[in-house]
Amino acid sequence: MEDAKHFIGGGWAAASGGETIAVIDPSDGETFAQIARGNAADIDSAVAAARAAFEGAWGQSSAAERGRVLYRLSMLVTACHEELAQIEARDTGKPLKQARADAAALARYFEFYAGAADKLHGETLPYQAGYTVLTIREPHGVTGHIVPWNYPMQIFGRSAGAALAAGNACVVKPAEDACLSVLRVAALAAEAGLPPGALNVVTGFGHEAGAALARHPGIDHISFTGSPETGKLVAQMAAENHVPVTLELGGKSPQIVFADADLDAALPTLVSAIVQNAGQTCSAGSRVLIERAAYEPLLERLAARFRELRVGPSRADLDCGPLINAKQQRRVWDFLSDAQHDGIPMAAQGEIAADAPESGFYQAPALLRDVPPGHRLAREEVFGPVLAALPFDDENEAVALANGTPYGLVASIWTRDGARQLRLARRVRSGQVFINNYGAGGGVELPFGGVGHSGHGREKGFEALYGFTVLKTIAIKHG
Ligand code: NAD
């Protein structure tokens, strides 16, 4: 990987403005590398390279050939598993075990979409006598991918993996806070035989390189993962060119626990759903809604778990690493100080390891109880290791609380009552519902995305492939 360069047209390219951005290790706040500060001219070059690939070798490759390239890429990612995990852990601050899981998931994304590439097909439709009508799924062309800092490898893999499988050429703008793994994987893709220009990565700030990509007239589709505010801006910019967008914007996902649930099974999952990646997960289970009869006993057990949680540098591989940056740390502090000011009881907190550098962006996991449903802690995404507990008295109240935010990304329902499982799964407004589990271990195969302020469109699974294609109808009159 070359310092401070973009990856454009199959090789490293210097930033046209010559400026760089410092890469900071969240574990100690120190600068350890520089990335290129991309601008509109760099985005122009990347879009031109992608267009040439789409109209050239990549656009003309067969679905089976695309699948083979993606499969080789999956193998290369597996071969470089530890290297990628180390890069990701240092860049994002996440514990090494989490970064290793992310590297494995990245390989799996490419493997899944390698296998799916030549199984994407249209239909023949019954129509009037004398006609044959068929549909074909065509790639959009050049797709733009704006990636956040929380899971750079995974989110890049799920988005660009599906787009490439469907035959698009990609321009990726990873987050300024964490993009080193994405640059490394772009180089691996070239090694795997991806033609020059099929995958381009331009680094830089969102308001510069990101905005230039979102409003570029040469882009045919944009997929964005990040905050609702930026998602709205991206959709507005894309609308100037009538470009379709997929938005994945996070959530305030409820974990609903009934008194009849297997609480022993639920407990570790209720905790990991919020502390994974220090709570900086779009699908974090950041609210736990507990039936009144189980409220005190479960809170007691949750509190005991929270007190055991340890936070430290990525290399220490504890329960949580630091937050991504000082801005994110201030955001979490702001939520917690509001909670304290409003008298919301802190049920338990984890601990920051004594040897964690003072200059790192650490936050002890926090469990807050009796959070009023209207409080911002019960309604807004914190994006930190903060769990809000709320009691409920019956199913209707559980549903009202679960649906009581503008979001709808993920929900879990913990109960042994089969009829209730189905009733609630239908009533909860959410893109994914998990019964007696949370997240099904990531599930590359499972379509993922939100409703409401969580966004629209679906990533992952076969569904993502449909999103990266345009359906064309061909009607043939043959008499
Ligand atoms: P963000 O939404 O601003 O950034 C996400 C991506 O969008 C980055 O690549 C960024 O460079 C880019 N971007 C920013 N401004 C842009 C613009 N004007 N045009 C085009 N692209 C732009 O998120 P953030 O500021 O890094 O974090 C703020 C909050 O967003 C977090 O506290 C968290 O609540 C939320 N967030 C959610 C996710 C998620 O996975 N859903 C990921 C990251 C952050």
Automatic annotation (TrEMBL):
| Swiss-Prot/TrEMBL keywords | Oxidoreductase
Q: Do you know which CDD domains this protein is assigned to?
A: ALDH_AAS00426
Q: Which residues form the Aldehyde dehydrogenase domain?
A: 12-474
**Pfam name, any one:** Aldedh
Do you know which InterPro entries this protein is assigned to? Ald_DH/histidinol_DH, Ald_DH_C, Ald_DH_CS_CYS, Ald_DH_CS_GLU, Ald_DH_N, Aldehyde_DH_dom
Gene3D superfamilies in the record: Aldehyde Dehydrogenase, Chain A, domain 1 (3.40.605.10), Aldehyde Dehydrogenase, Chain A, domain 2 (3.40.309.10)
Catalytic residues of the enzyme: 248
Asked whether the keyword rRNA processing is assigned, the reply is no
Output the Gene Ontology terms for molecular function.
oxidoreductase activity, acting on the aldehyde or oxo group of donors, NAD or NADP as acceptor
Family to which the UniProt record says this protein belongs: Belongs to the aldehyde dehydrogenase family.
This chain belongs to the protein called Aldehyde dehydrogenase family protein
Organism encoding this protein: Trinickia terrae
